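Let us practice reading a record.
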Amino acid sequence: MIPEYLTNYLKTLSAQNRRLFDSPLVWLFDPPELPLDPRSQFPTLQRTFLEIGFGHGEVLEELVVRHSNTAFVGIERRPFRVRKALKRLQRAGVSNVALIRANLDLVDRPLFVENSFDGILVNHPDPWPKRRHERHRFFQPARMDWLASILSPGGQIEVTSDQAAYFFTILHLFETDARFDSLLPPPFYTAEQEPGRPVSRFERHKRAAGEIVRLLRFRKI
């Protein structure tokens, strides 16, 4: 059963999203519909992919256009970012994508059915560098349970970050979790730009400034 405070948040979120967005590319849902099933939402597509925190949507747009047989779901908490991504996707003329505006700090657990996705991407999660704010970080031990539950067996998760301390904290979470196995050789990450891999404007700026951007890629066993 969903707690009352969460049900109230979801009702408010649903009402707000219906006022803010009018597009078939935005996944509008009501609390009784949870957990959502991306495979049922896109029954004719072969694979499902989730981007968490898609920002302005440039990576998501490139992936959606490149992989027309994959269903993409993007989550972002800020309405203006959803609008920016929506404009990109509408110009591209795609239909294999659904955007969700939601705060994962509140709704991760009941949001999706188990084994919803074949791939998950998290680009540059907020590091919350101050010690008193660390509890706000996306990657926590409990969040690993959620990621493992919504990722299909054999599915992959990729994380990039320019924040060294936070990146190695995330890497440790995956290395010590028996449900995941690295797809990269030791030291289980790379700082090289892989050919053909879509990158965000943020990452391009960081690399152009000479900063190190690290990437990890793990598979659910």
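A brief commentary: DSSP finds eight helices and seven strands in the chain.
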